[in-house]
Amino acid sequence: MAFLAINTILCCILSLGLTQDAIVKQEKPVVVDQGEDASLNCTVSVTSGSDYNVFWYHTDTNKHLSSNKVIEPEFEQNKYKIEENIITQTKKSYILSLLKIQPIQAGRYRCSLQISGSPDRKEMFVRVIVRVAPKIEPGSTTSSAEALIGRNVTLNCSASGYPKPNITWSRPNGKAIPGMPNTYTFRGNSLKIRNIQKDDRGIYRCHADNTVPKPDTYDLNVQVHFEPYTRYVQDTYGHYPCPSCEGTASNLQIECIVGGEPDPELRWLKLSQNAKTYVAGMNLKQNSEDLEEGEKYHIAEWKGDSAVFSHIDISEIYGKLTIKDFQEDDFGIYVCMGRNKYNESFEPILVWKSDPPAIFGGGGGPGSAATHLLPSISVFIIVHLVSRYIFTLFFI
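-> structure tokens emitted (396 positions)
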């Protein structure tokens, strides 16, 4: 008899425990990528026949989102959805869906169970983490950079996203990071290039990644400025006038290459007749003629990045001067000049009178016209070569 009484009491206690008002706790946060849907589950157990309400709140903004199975009117229906699922007679779940979730919807959410006539509330909290793909921020990222050769340059890159993106630098041309031999990537928001050189110019790529698809990249151009320089293709040209020739046969072409950054202006000069030779530092304004495109001269130039002259550096310009209808007074010293905002550079080119070709009846033998020209040509070449030696010795 006593045994039956104890069983009856235990059954009553267990029965009361099963129908006790309660809310299931959720320990783990809900992690979702931006633009996807997130579902928050709130399961409640209530005494049979009890009158109650279940509310969802966004705790961080203190917004009341839903009551039972109805979304509050102030919220757009395309952003939130609520479902009521009956599990048993005394247990139900209220699933709040956040549709195409955005970062502003991240944070803590609270599900609250309120029994009518009772001051107590049963509450459950869940944290929503919205993962956001990296996005490089142009306002705080270096768009381009330029520096004089030998100076220091700092490149900055910043990106938004959650978790915080990692920033990695690389060079799309496959070259190593400046100052880091055999290192082709660098991790960090700022990349400092010390004592920058010509080989350090070009495109640098900022790569932002936080494992959320997809990574973001940004390319920026680094320009290295330097004074212009000039170099000849050949420093002397022998030519014999052809008065009877027609068309291009009577022309002479001379060439040179200028380099620098920013791109130098290429100009051609011809020393005056009273200037016997070129001397570095001489006043070219008083001792030379500035040659221009026209009936007498044709001036052409090509950038080093063109398909025709791919063998020269990208910062170089290949220049060609065509002297039309070449005459006796066209012999002399021509000067190829390169100029940018940092300086000027000059390269003299000698055009001298050569022996007449056989077609003109010249053979260079004793008594020929060419033989009589040799002394003057020799003196001209010797003076020119001595001046170049002096220039090299003191100015290079």
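DSSP finds three helices and 26 strands in the chain.
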